[in-house]
Design brief:
The chain is an alpha+beta fold. It contains ten helices and 13 strands. Bound molecules: N-hydroxy-L-asparagine.
């Protein structure tokens, strides 16, 4: 009790998302409500081509969304490959609340959403459709780096088909005034992925993990490498052993680099962690990763994540 609330989230679009989450936290609300409200902001933003509405489609032109949410009691809900719904995070929360399951996928997730009052909408914006059609000309699947990474923008310019807007999931972690932790993670996944491909973001333990005794972690980047290492769970378990949030994120990144040094040179993966005391940290393979922090004192901070390269 008597904790100082804090919310942190991935990338610069975490700033407006944190603001929304902060409204909940600053009025004494629950972390689980804060993270849901927070990530709904980028989900609804059509200019954000990596989350929710406006997200990049898969190679067949379908916008398929992945999201999960986890609370302080270890309750969790998740959807993967969900089409036509602007707020997959709220569907994930409903899976958590209303069903005996953790995860729904594809048509079943859509059916569940529609039965629960979510509206069916077209998520493919003209901009994302245009980028997809451009990509189809070569149809090369080369997920190279996040768009903020200047160093790699040269090698893989945004204009090069297949490289646009590939990794920018929002992962958010919050600690509320009662000292409870929750997290949310939502994405349209890797642009131009195979139809049916699921990333780390909707997988509890990979894209997100919360243990209210210890802390929480979330991830962004090439999901396959995060899944292989059960990244977010690993970060939380390392914090349990006494690692600081940043050291835990670093060790999780090092596992990826150690196992696949050549792959790691060419991809981005970043972890973000928050512990029970409200201490936070991040670490990424490549430079260019950033995260947003919001507390009563430090409103709207954007922090460059440390990185291996
Ligand atoms: C995925 N991790 O689907 C997501 C993509 C991502 O920043 O994080 N982008 O693999």
């Amino acid at each position: 009790a008597g904790a100082k609330p804090i919310v942190i989230s991935t990338w610069d679009f975490g700033i407006p998302a944190n603001k929304e989450a902060w409204k909940v936290l600053s009025s004494g609300g629950k972390a689980i409500d804060a993270v849901e409200q927070g990530v709904r902001v980028p989900e609804a933003d059509p200019t954000n081509q990596t989350v929710g509405y406006g997200g990049m489609p898969d190679r067949d032109g379908h916008v398929t969304l992945d999201a999960c949410i986890m609370d302080e009691l270890g309750n969790c809900g998740s959807v993967a490959g969900l089409e036509h719904i602007v707020h997959p995070i709220s569907v994930a929360r409903m899976v958590m609340k209303k069903t005996p399951h953790v995860m729904l996928v594809g048509d079943g997730a859509l059916q569940f959403a529609l039965e629960n009052g979510f509206k069916k909408e077209n998520l493919l914006t003209p901009e994302s459709e245009k980028a997809w059609k451009e990509w189809l000309k070569t149809a090369r699947y080369e997920p190279v780096m996040n768009i903020e990474n200047k160093q790699y923008e040269k090698a893989a310019p945004k204009t090069l088909p297949g490289n646009q807007y590939n990794h920018d999931t929002i992962g958010m972690l919050a600690l509320d005034s009662k000292g409870n932790l929750s997290g949310a993670c939502t994405t349209s996944g890797m642009a131009f992925k195979l139809h049916g491909r699921v990333g780390d973001s909707p997988l509890i333990g990979a894209g997100l993990y919360i243990d209210n005794e210890v802390g929480g972690a979330t991830s962004t980047g090439v999901g396959e490498e995060i899944i292989r290492n059960v990244g977010s769970f690993l970060v939380v378990e390392l914090m349990r052993q006494g690692y600081t949030p940043e050291d835990a994120c670093k060790e999780a990144v090092m596992r990826i680099i150690k196992k696949k040094p050549d792959t790691a040179k060419k991809i981005q993966v970043g972890f973000l962690a928050l512990n029970k005391k409200g201490e936070y940290g991040a670490y990424a393979i490549q430079s260019g990763f950033s995260y947003a922090v919001c507390t009563a004192e430090k409103d709207d901070l954007l922090i460059p994540g440390k990185s291996y390269y």
